[in-house]
């Protein structure tokens, strides 16, 4: 499947030829993990022009088995054009991170690459108050890894160096679409993973494998490290400092008919909402996993999806503040 789908760079290059041939491919190479040289080099792909005044960093899903795909790029280009019609010039940049069954793509390589991506944006002058981050599915999981790292620096700094925002600053917002927060045993959070069998999500095996590598690679520290990869299993107050030091606003969405619904609701109600006054969970009636993006597998615009304009307005509001 990985061979047939192709890697993120190939997907992006094909998309560019179809949808932004006048701009061409705008690719930034991120530093390698010099201590262990694990994983491929992380890359940043720009959708539309490279803009740095207002930036949305996108962490794509794919069950840690696949990189960004055309429908994801199409969705965020659609969003960008909608915002331009409102007078908002927003730069959208996609992180292409290591995936697959290769041991060199095992945790915490993706966290290292996400950290490098945010550090890069800060290094080129992006103000945290004009940065929002979004991720869907496994990208939503990676979002929780990054937020965890910002409130609890990873216990092995040689693998993932600390990430500090400038004093007194916070990210403007984070948006998680159908975040995959319970990887190892999805049934423990409720019945939806078992009974919503018609949903597109079937990620029990890759989730278990991803968490299992932590027990293999970090046998003496796995209890400290698992909460980074599986945030629904973290202590309830794990994210208690998000509002004070990391991010102004949080939005989480899920589909009422998706298999991950139970774990998403548990994650939000126990880990996020009690500790952040501007955090919202929206559950879409009839929605499936990554519902908004799935429209773009067969179309170039939302197929009557009522959640899409709500999410786009939430992001736009953050950039207007």
What strand order characterises the main sheet?
1-2-4-3-5-6-7-8
Taking the sheet with the most strands, its summary is: 8 strands, mixed
Overall 3D form: globular
Helix content: 25-40%
Stretches where pLDDT is under 50 for at least 5 consecutive residues are: none
Mean pLDDT: 90
Summing up helix and strand content along with how strands pair, one would put the structural category as: alpha/beta
Bin the strand percentage. 5-15%
* N-C termini distance: 43 Å
Describe the oligomeric state of these chains in a short phrase: single chain
Element order: H for helix, E for strand: HHEEEHEHEHEHHHHEHEHH
Per DSSP E runs of 2 or more residues, the count of β-strands stands at: 8
What can you see in these coordinates?
The chain is of the alpha/beta class and 321 residues long. 38% of the residues lie in helices and 15% in strands. The chain has helices spanning 2-5, 8-19, 70-85, 109-123, 138-151, 192-195, 204-217, 222-229, 242-245, 261-272, 291-294, 307-320, and strands at residues 27-29, 43-47, 55-59, 91-96, 131-136, 171-177, 247-255, 279-284. An eight-stranded mixed β-sheet has the order 1-2-4-3-5-6-7-8, with helices on both faces. The longest helix has 16 residues, at 70-85. The radius of gyration is 18 Å and the shape is globular. The mean pLDDT is 90.
């Amino acid at each position: 499947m990985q061979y047939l789908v192709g890697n993120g760079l190939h997907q992006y290059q094909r998309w560019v030829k179809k949808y932004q041939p006048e701009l061409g491919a705008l690719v930034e190479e991120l530093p390698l993990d010099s201590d262990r040289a694990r994983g491929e080099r992380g890359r940043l792909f720009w959708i539309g022009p490279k803009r740095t005044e207002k930036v949305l960093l996108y962490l794509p899903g794919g069950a840690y088995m696949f990189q960004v795909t055309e429908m994801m790029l199409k969705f965020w280009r659609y969003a960008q054009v909608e915002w331009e019609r409102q007078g908002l010039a927003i730069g959208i940049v996609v992180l292409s991170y290591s995936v697959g069954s290769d041991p060199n793509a095992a945790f915490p390589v993706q966290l290292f690459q996400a950290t490098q991506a945010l550090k890069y944006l800060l290094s080129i002058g992006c103000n945290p108050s004009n940065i929002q981050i979004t991720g869907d599915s496994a990208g939503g999981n990676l979002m929780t890894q990054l937020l965890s790292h910002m409130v609890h620096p990873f216990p092995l700094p040689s693998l993932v160096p600390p990430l500090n925002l400038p004093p007194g600053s916070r990210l403007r917002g984070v948006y998680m679409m159908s975040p995959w927060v319970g990887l190892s045993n999805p049934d423990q959070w409720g019945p939806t993973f078992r009974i919503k069998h018609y949903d597109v999500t079937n990620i029990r095996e890759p989730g278990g494998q991803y968490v299992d590598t932590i027990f293999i690679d970090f046998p003496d520290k796995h209890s400290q490290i698992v909460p980074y990869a599986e945030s629904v299993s973290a202590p309830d107050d794990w994210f208690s400092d998000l509002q004070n030091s990391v991010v102004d606003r949080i939005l989480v969405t899920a589909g009422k008919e998706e298999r991950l619904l139970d774990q998403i609701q548990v994650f939000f109600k126990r880990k996020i909402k009690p500790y952040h006054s501007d955090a919202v969970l929206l559950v879409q009636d009839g929605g499936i996993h990554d519902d908004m993006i799935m429209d773009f597998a067969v179309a170039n615009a939302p197929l009557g999806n009522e959640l899409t304009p709500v999410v786009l307005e939430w992001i736009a509001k953050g950039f207007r503040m």
